[in-house]
Design brief:
Order of helices and strands: HHHHHH
Distance between the termini: 64 Å
Number of helices: 6
Number of strands: 0
Largest sheet: none
Shape: rod-shaped
Radius of gyration: 23 Å
Strand content: under 5%
């Protein structure tokens, strides 16, 4: 305890501030992940899905139903040219839709 008291107060305060800042950033990252996609994200992904050929839609649904998410994402990217993030959102949305309809 005496060693702690021998540290100059400004140094101690800076140390506490750095720790508090680091903890706040770590907690903040977790909150961002929990928010999930916005309504605009769902609208843009559903529009992209609607623009695909029906055969591609059926194949994606078949892969999703079998639990082959990676294959479904790859197929979407190959057939539609969407980026990885959009393809993942589309597959997730289809999984939720198909799960709710059974």
């Amino acid at each position: 305890m005496e060693e702690l008291l021998s540290v100059p107060l400004p140094v101690l305060l800076v140390g506490v501030a750095v720790i508090a800042f680091s903890l706040g950033r770590a907690v903040g990252r977790g909150e961002a992940d929990e928010k999930g996609p916005s309504l605009a994200d769902y609208e843009s992904t559903s529009n992209a899905y609607a623009d695909m050929a029906s055969s591609t839609q059926e194949e994606v649904d078949r892969l999703v139903a079998k639990g082959k998410t990676i294959s479904a994402v790859k197929l979407l990217r190959e057939q539609s040219g969407v980026d990885l993030r959009t393809a993942k959102k589309l597959v997730d949305a289809r999984r939720k839709l198909l799960k709710g309809s059974t």
